[in-house]
Design brief:
- The protein is an all-alpha fold.
- It has a single domain, classed as Farnesyl Diphosphate Synthase.
- The chain is 76% helix and 1% strand.
- A hairpin with a 2-residue loop joins β1 and β2.
């Protein structure tokens, strides 16, 4: 047998075995991430406008889901999250090093599926924004610096809106309708709306707590929309900031923290802001064209919020 051929066969087989091991932290979650589920709904609703051919849309969704899952695994690592989807996060099962390598590998292997240079350009531009958004959120949290509402919005634009925009932009490359339309005015309020929804539910929802940890944004010291309002409108009162700095896991302390937000009017302010964003969101949908699928996503999100409030 030719030694070179033998080495090549061994290398191919070994690479497949190595890949299975490498992807174990990535494949730790058997069910789709809830966040990915929402994103996939958004992509599907956008395709009501774009009418991307079915085979290409399926390929784009697969890439988007893989990138989204890899990003969430990395988020859990950075935030020291304990639960995701009701089970221990990858880092707690496989360790930090293996989880980092698995997430990075998933990002790179997803890029291999890009068959258009424009897709690569969109990916790079999105990756830069995502890193900026995540870095600033981490910077504020690690240093106990409460951002302004404007700084929060910029972070959300980079972190959340760009993640939604990525697949929408890729869809447009293969769209049979609205190929050259500008969707930015629609995506900005949309990204803010869903991020603020998540911020609110994180503090107020018991069902969300079962999937992750009750008030895990408090434990992670993250300055979310209602928390920023509470701190900025009561600068003389340091209780919120002091609790946040302690990264507490104590449920009673978290309940006290949320009670303070209620007293400061921060939760009501958050709901009022969501109502304004909803109207802006709907107005932008109307400007493009009627889209019942997109409107249903909005209604479902609002129903979830109402269920929490009630």
């Amino acid at each position: 047998m030719n030694p070179t051929t033998s080495a090549n066969v061994y290398s191919d087989n070994k690479n497949q075995e190595d890949e299975k091991i490498l992807l174990q932290p990535f494949n730790h979650f058997k069910q789709p991430f809830p966040a990915n589920h929402i994103l996939e709904k958004i992509w599907t609703a956008c395709n009501y406008w774009f009418q991307v051919p079915e085979d290409k849309f399926k390929e784009i969704s697969t890439i988007g889901n893989k990138l989204g899952a890899a990003g969430l695994i990395m988020d859990d690592l950075v935030d020291n999250s304990v639960l995701r989807g009701g089970i221990p996060t990858s880092r707690l099962v496989y360790g930090r090093s293996r989880t980092i390598h698995s997430s990075i590998y998933a990002f790179i292997s997803a890029m291999e599926k890009f068959d258009d240079f424009k897709m690569v350009d969109i990916f790079i531009a999105t990756g830069v924004k995502l890193c900026q958004g995540q870095a600033m959120e981490t910077y504020f949290a690690r240093n106990g610096i409460c951002p302004t509402e404007e700084e929060y919005q910029q972070t959300v634009f980079n972190k959340t809106t760009s993640a939604i925009s990525f697949i929408v932009s890729v869809q447009q490359l293969f769209a049979t309708q609205y190929k050259n339309s500008n969707f930015d005015p629609f995506l900005v309020p949309m990204g803010l709306f869903f991020q603020i929804c998540n911020d609110y539910v994180n503090l107020a929802s018991q069902s969300y707590a079962k999937l992750k940890v009750f008030g895990d944004d408090i434990t992670e010291g993250i300055f979310t929309f209602p928390i920023i309002h509470g701190i900025k409108t009561h600068p003389e009162d340091h209780r919120l900031l002091d609790i946040l700095k302690q990264r507490t896991s104590d449920k009673n302390v978290k309940l006290y923290f949320i009670k303070l937000l209620e007293e400061f009017g921060s939760l009501d302010y958050t709901l009022e802001s969501l109502e304004k964003l909803k109207n802006e969101y709907m107005e932008e949908i109307t400007k493009i064209a009627a889209n019942p699928e997109m409107e249903k996503i909005l209604d479902d999100a609002l129903n979830d919020i109402e269920a929490v409030v009630m």
